Amino acid sequence: MNIFILEDDVFQRNRLENLLEYLKTEKGYDLHIVASTENPRELIDLIKNSSEENLYFLDIQIKDEDKKGMEVAQIIRGIDEKGTIVFVTTHSEFAALTFSYKVSALDFIAKDLDNVNFDKQIEEVIQFVEKKNKKDEREMLVINTKFKDIRVPLDEVLYFETSSQPHKLILITSKKRIEFYAKLSDIEGKHPKLTRTHKSFVANIDNAVELDKSNLTIKFFNGEQCYVSRRKIKQIQTLIDEKL
Hints:
Blueprint: E1 2-6, H1 10-27, E2 32-37, H2 40-45, E3 54-58, H3 68-79, E4 84-89, H4 97-101, E5 107-110, H5 115-136, E6 140-144, E7 149-153, E8 157-162, E9 168-173, E10 177-181, H6 184-188, E11 194-198, E12 201-204, E13 208-212, E14 217-220, E15 225-227, H7 233-243
Parallel strand pairs: 1-2, 1-3, 3-4, 4-5
Antiparallel strand pairs: 6-7, 8-9, 8-12, 9-10, 11-12, 13-14, 14-15
GO molecular function, one term: DNA binding
Pfam family, one: LytTR
Protein name: DNA-binding response regulator
């Protein structure tokens, strides 16, 4: 996680730096302080790209300019739409202004909190960003159709089957069932893990746990099943064996 700090009070800047170092060395958080400065331009110049890994701790009042931190946040958001912005300030009354500045700040943390509560809130922010990043690391399967776009985690996809309604497919995941307009031939080329098992089915073999050759079915980890044609049995068995 890349940390950027904008704070003109040396005591407060050191307080935050020391806490982050403690969280890194004693609690194992993957933290890297890219910038810790009172100079807005210095911080902005060090932003290399837009990333969920970027976390910004900004004071609002910088060198007697009441809303300087808000202006900096606005510039940051123009460069980095994915990063997380947190204001560490004595000016929590400016919270409502984040809407007019359109900076999408995650939180306002008061500088005058006692150390226990201050440390707790900073760690909660880091935990939130860390959890969000882990969630974002999941590979997504995106299917663009004429009427809607479907986006699901690939590791939740079990299989696709043709619907009883013409020109429609049914996507079965470990959590839900989605019906949409498409052809199986469009789906099987979407990802290497998606394999045609039958004229009416495309399956994610990564989630298969057993091939029932007698009943010509593939069983998945949650009990769902789909069909496999006889001519595909050898290929599917090989794919299942390779992943186990």
